[in-house]
Write a structure and sequence with these properties.
By secondary structure, this protein is of the alpha+beta class. Helix content is about 35%, strand content about 20%.
């Protein structure tokens, strides 16, 4: 009995080895102590049944207590080694550090703000209005005829009654003319909705910016000079512009405004379809009927208006071939343009 108790006391000293055991030494240590066939503690427990009852009780209790201590210490060390291995294996010390993401303004938002700021410098105030409009403000007050294709449900998103999602920001022109008396100079950014396919050059929901200037004595010369000044401020000081005759119900005369292609500088490329020019906005002198519909004396006042898509302006400036890239929320693409986003 005494020799078994001495063996247990000597074996207890080996508990001190466990906290320092590494992943290679720990399995061997476990086998040496608790192995089913040749473990030191196993050999001691195998001799307990041969002792007299009193000695069997004392030695058996001591041996089982020591076995529990070894099992607890070995399990604790296994958990420590497993946690350390998991932490280290998930960390590649050769990789460069990860920079944290920082948000930035979307490219279209940047363009909207820049355009509004340019016109603010020219004396225009930003104006906004609701995205749900009446047919009257969206069409009829703007001199659209009753049979105009834009009034069809295939082209516009109708809600209840005569309400619809505005197809352009022009209704804000009507609201501004009815609320304020001339002189008026406003720039109007906002979302517009049309039943357009979502393809490389169209989106059913898009940003639009319109402008309106109404005062006494405004002429076509003022209109051309203002828009040309904007183009040369937004693109480059030597940007060439041209106006082509067009038709819009709410302006007369009407014109499309083109700028020299910013990609090929007028030489011709796939982006401008080899023409050297890119259309950026529609414009014209405010139709007298629009002024009269809002209670403004068309004999005394005149004005000009324009509308442009900032997404297409951004595409023109940066040579982006597909408008869908602006709406797909791909950070790798957008981070090229959002200052501070990485």
């Amino acid at each position: 009995m005494r020799d078994l108790l001495a063996a247990l006391a000597e074996l207890r000293e080996r508990l001190k080895e466990i906290p320092q055991a590494d992943e290679r030494r720990l399995p061997d240590l476990k086998t040496e102590i608790l192995g089913r066939k040749a473990g030191a503690l196993t050999r001691i427990l195998a001799r307990v049944p041969k002792l007299d009852p009193a000695s069997r009780k004392e030695v058996g209790a001591a041996a089982n207590a020591l076995k529990r201590e070894f099992e607890a210490a070995l399990n604790a060390r296994e958990r420590e080694l497993k946690h350390a291995a998991t932490s280290v294996s998930s960390l590649d010390l050769t990789m460069p550090g990860r920079t944290s993401w920082r948000g930035g303004l979307h490219l279209v938002t940047q363009v909207v703000d820049e355009i509004c700021e340019i016109f603010h410098e020219l004396g225009f105030t930003r104006a906004v209005g609701p995205e749900i409009e009446t047919e009257r403000n969206n069409f009829f007050a703007l001199n659209f005829p009753n049979d105009h294709p834009a009034l069809d449900a295939q082209d516009s998103f109708y809600l209840d009654g005569d309400l619809l999602l505005r197809t352009h920001t022009s209704p804000v022109q009507i609201r501004t003319l009815e609320r304020y008396r001339p002189p008026i100079r406003v720039v109007i950014p906002g979302l517009a909705y049309r039943r357009d396919p979502f393809d490389a050059s169209h989106s059913p929901v898009f940003e639009q910016i319109e402008g309106l200037a109404v005062d006494e004595g405004i002429t076509f010369v003022d209109f051309k000079a203002t828009l040309a000044a904007f183009a040369r401020r937004f693109f480059t000081p030597d940007t060439q512009v041209r106006f082509r005759p067009s038709y819009f119900p709410f302006t007369e005369p009407s014109a499309e405004m083109d700028v020299q292609c910013q990609i090929c500088r007028g030489a011709g490329c796939p982006t401008c379809k080899q023409t050297g020019w890119m259309e950026i906005l529609g414009s014209g002198m405010v139709h007298p009927a629009v002024l009269e519909n809002t209670g403004v004396d068309s004999e005394r006042y005149s004005g000009f208006a324009w509308g442009m898509g900032p997404a297409r302006i951004a595409m023109s400036r940066h040579g982006i071939p597909d408008i869908r890239l602006l709406y797909e929320s791909d950070v790798r693409f957008l981070a090229q343009f959002a200052e501070g986003a990485r």
